[in-house]
TrEMBL record:
It is an enzyme of class 5 (isomerase). One of its GO terms (biological process) is salicylic acid biosynthetic process. This is isochorismate synthase. Residues 129-382 form the Chorismate-utilising enzyme C-terminal domain. It comes from the Bacteria. GO terms for molecular function: isochorismate synthase activity. It catalyses: chorismate = isochorismate. It holds the Pfam family Chorismate_bind. Belongs to the isochorismate synthase family.
């Protein structure tokens, strides 16, 4: 971009940058799981429904989960844009780039006021029959010798009393530790995620991805937490669910990479409500491939779709109540020098301010020895991060 500027981060910068997210029609916010990088995209100098129509040094966006169309939505069917202003915070430095805005400090002063939206919500639809439909799925997997795993999703919709500001949500996301914080906003639509799951990161040819699948709740005490973690590590059902993901990632990227490194056993990945089985995977990208080639090859992993992929996706399309849109889909950014990072949009919600609704999403990996009631409870916990955001729960614990 034409104008570059960087300086030490000031105390007020974050609040002002968050507030600037409210003022543009198209924005993106992406905070890495370790909190080391925060990226902001403000306004679109180019936008498209697919990334290959765009040309820019920095591109934000998301693909939809599959070809199913979400009615009355632009955002949920995939949106990509080259920002007018790109800002990155890393190691207490703020970096600014733009083709049209010359003076960062002057620009930032426009976003002085702190506004907090307090929005009241109540449930309008929830899938009360999800457990019985999941039992049917378990029976199908048992009796079908092809279908092994399906990640079965549910949607839970709230009516909103008012507009939820992106700045309020970014602030509230602070409570969701050890997760990425992602917001994509398009006009009156917003997609928000506190996902623990990176799909892929590429920097200087180094590829890092991970299998995240197999879940148990956090304990109320340290002892209980450790006990639950050990139960998860020793659970045959969860190990099986996890192994499908590891094997699939391996198969999907082995021809696009070299030096593929895959630990033999998963470890635990813990966030506020849940612990998961987690296998970090690294490799070197073969030069002719791009970040998006890897994204397209990996998506959907069996942590979001299932095994075998085609049969699982057919099942999801036929039996989930509504199309997923950006739920469980790749969202992130990439640059013209073939770096980038994509996460999967889980622990997420879709806000439609034209309809005054927020739709929360959760899914669970169903295999032959799943228990439908336990999976329902697991999805309740997976809805919890976004429920807390809706409640305006910003207590740091
Ligand atoms: C589909 C979701 O989680 C996936 C990612 C991690 C663990 C999962 C599981 O244990 O079922 C799911 O595969 C969700 O959170 O909505």
């Amino acid at each position: 971009m034409k104008y570059h500027f960087s300086r030490d981060l000031c105390d007020s910068d974050r609040a002002q940058l968050n507030r600037a997210l409210d003022f543009f029609n198209i924005t993106a916010y992406f905070k890495t799981v370790d909190g080391q990088e925060e990226l902001f995209g403000f306004g679109a100098q180019q936008e498209a429904d697919v990334p290959n129509k765009l040309n820019g040094t920095m591109i934000f966006g998301g693909y939809p989960f599959d070809q199913q169309v979400v009615e009355n939505s632009k955002l949920m069917n995939g949106i990509w844009f080259v920002p007018i202003i790109f800002v990155k915070i890393t190691q207490n430095i703020v970096i600014f780039e733009s083709d049209t805005v010359e003076n960062f400090n002057e620009w930032l002063t426009k976003f002085k006021t702190i506004a907090r939206s307090k929005v009241v919500s109540h449930v309008i639809t929830s899938e009360l029959d999800w457990t019985s439909r999941t039992q049917k799925l378990i029976n199908t997997i048992i009796s079908n010798d092809k279908l092994k795993k399906v990640v079965f999703g549910r949607q839970h919709q709230y009516a909103l009393s008012d507009t939820l500001l992106a700045s309020t949500l970014v602030h509230a996301l602070i409570t969701q530790k050890n997760t990425y914080h992602v917001i994509l906003k398009y006009q009156k639509e917003m997609f928000v995620s506190a996902t623990p799951e990176r799909l892929v990161k590429v920097t200087d040819g180094a590829v890092t991805t991970a299998a995240v699948a197999g879940t148990i709740r956090r304990g109320n005490t340290q002892t209980e937490d450790k006990l639950l973690g050990d139960m998860l590590l020793n659970s045959h059902k969860n190990q099986q669910e996890h192994r499908y993901v590891v094997n699939s990632i391996y198969q999907k990227i082995q021809n696009m990479t070299t030096s593929l490194n895959l630990p033999p056993q998963p470890i635990l990945l813990q966030n506020r409500q849940l612990q998961h089985l987690y296998t970090p995977i690294s490799a070197r990208l073969i030069k002719k491939y791009t970040v998006l080639d890897i994204v397209n090859a990996l998506h959907p992993t069996p942590a979001l779709g299932g095994v075998p992929q085609k049969q699982a996706l057919d099942y999801i399309r036929a039996h989930e109540r509504s199309p997923r849109g950006l739920f469980a889909a790749p969202i992130g950014y990439y640059t013209s020098n073939n770096s980038g990072e994509f996460v999967v949009g889980i622990r997420s919600m879709y806000i439609n301010h034209a309809a005054h609704t927020a739709t929360l999403f959760a899914g669970a990996g169903i295999v032959s020895d799943s228990n439908a009631t336990q999976e329902y409870q697991e999805t309740n916990l997976k809805l919890e991060p976004m429920r807390q955001l809706l409640k305006g729960d910003v207590n740091d614990n």
